[in-house]
Here is the input.
Amino acid sequence: MFNASEWNRYLSQARHTLASAGRDIADGDFAWACFKSQQAAEMAAKGFIRAGGGLATGHSVVALVHAAIDGVPEGLARCARELDKVYIPTRYPDVYDAGSPHEYFDLADATSHVECAAGIVASLEARVADARAGS
Here is the structure.
């Protein structure tokens, strides 16, 4: 049985985090926008899995999306891979030989990651809507 309350709780946070990433883009905080995009996709996938009664652990969007969706479309799989790549380097200076994370990410990076996360969230929302329509 699908737990709509659990799904809505996670979806709400994923949407809120995506909106926050959009504000980060507007403020020029591109590294944070990338990280928050990863977080939004992670939350949506975890919410989908948990709402279906599954166990959702870890931070890999790739693993979570594959656990949530049978036969992940290549576009979503690519986005999940890109989002996983920004989980650590957007936050920790020791990832780089010089400089800080905020110096390594730009508008194009942030925009691309927000679009990827939004696509994953939308895909999961569509699956929930389709399942509800079929019941």
Notes: The two ends are 11 Å apart (CA to CA).
